[in-house]
């Protein structure tokens, strides 16, 4: 009889141990499934699909800090393209300057006012002059805020009788602002100044 009770007790302990192990295993499995499901949901939420030319393109969301250098360089580039690309059309000049001034503070407005007072834009219109700019290098220092930048570019000034090529070097700082349709990158150029703007060559047409 004692042997039978001992066998029953051993069987009970075995069943209890088996049940505990099964419960812990099930709990771990459930945790793994929940964690994996959460990861999949997060990955799915970070993906969007853009329809372009009847093709679905996949895009991924990312933290702003991951894209600061790229967005900052594009912000600086677009500002210089808007500010320095000019054609003999008053409406074109005003549109480009307006777009540029959304991307910078009063230092850019001050340079624009100085150029306008010196009849720079009026001379472009009356002389049928076109001015184009090609940004060759942009350096961004993201180690400290506001972010300092240096922009190097080549200006091409096309006149009726000649084409002049000039070097352009500017610098300034970028600070964060709210994004908008007029400022999609959410930066504002501050303390902008021209370090160099000199003739490289002139050729007759």
From TrEMBL:
The chain crosses the membrane at residues 20-38. The keyword DNA damage does not apply. This is Conjugative transposon protein TraK. Keywords: Membrane, Transmembrane, Transmembrane helix. It comes from the Bacteria. NCBIfam families: Bac_Flav_CT_K. Signal peptide: none annotated. GO terms for cellular component: membrane.
């Amino acid at each position: 009889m004692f042997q039978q009770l001992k066998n029953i007790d051993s069987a009970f302990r075995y069943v209890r141990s088996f049940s505990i192990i099964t419960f812990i295993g099930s709990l771990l499995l459930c945790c793994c499934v929940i964690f994996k499901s959460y990861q999949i949901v997060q990955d799915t939420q970070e993906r969007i699909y853009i329809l372009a030319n009847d093709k679905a393109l996949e895009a991924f969301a990312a933290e702003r800090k991951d894209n600061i250098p790229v967005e900052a360089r594009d912000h600086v580039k677009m500002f210089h393209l808007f500010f320095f690309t000019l054609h003999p059309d008053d409406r074109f000049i005003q549109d480009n300057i307006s777009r540029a001034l959304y991307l910078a503070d009063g230092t850019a407005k001050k340079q624009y006012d100085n150029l306008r007072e010196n009849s720079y834009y009026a001379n472009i219109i009356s002389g049928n002059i076109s001015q184009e700019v090609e940004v060759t290098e942009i350096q961004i220092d993201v180690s400290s805020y506001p972010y300092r930048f240096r922009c190097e570019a080549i200006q091409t000034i096309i006149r009726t009788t000649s084409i002049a090529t000039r070097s352009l070097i500017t610098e300034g700082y970028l600070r964060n602002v709210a994004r908008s349709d007029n400022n999609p990158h959410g930066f504002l150029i501050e303390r902008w100044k021209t370090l160099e703007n000199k003739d490289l060559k002139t050729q007759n047409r």
